[in-house]
Sequence to fold (148 residues):
Amino acid sequence: MLIEALLKSKAVPGVITIAGDTPVAEAVAEMNRHHIGAVLVVDREKQLLGILSERDVLRHFTECARGLTAEKIMTPRSRLIIGHRDDTVEYAMRVFTNNKIRHLPVLEGDRIIGIVSIGDALKAHLENLKHDNKMLEDYVTGASLVID
Fold:
């Protein structure tokens, strides 16, 4: 798939941009409004100056977050999407994509057994693709398979 096709398939068409002098609170509100994790920062001629991501905001958040508690700003359990040990990586990737989330707590009953990130799922998916590709290569070239 080409990047062009990927861009055409995006749920939010186009690009969300902000001016360089936009207050951070407004930039974050814009990201929240569009359910996105980054906005492009442009000058008056709409030329790219940079990108402001959630991670950029987080790096500077400590300057103004004194006194806030985790419970005050967290996503509550009632709104969480929970994973289970027998969910597939492909399912988790669909959950990440469809819900625009990056982390999936994994529970067994009420017991926390882990957390999976979108990066974890992507890494596992790429490893599976690499393995499948090797198997197909071996099949096409007639390489003998050694099975332990």
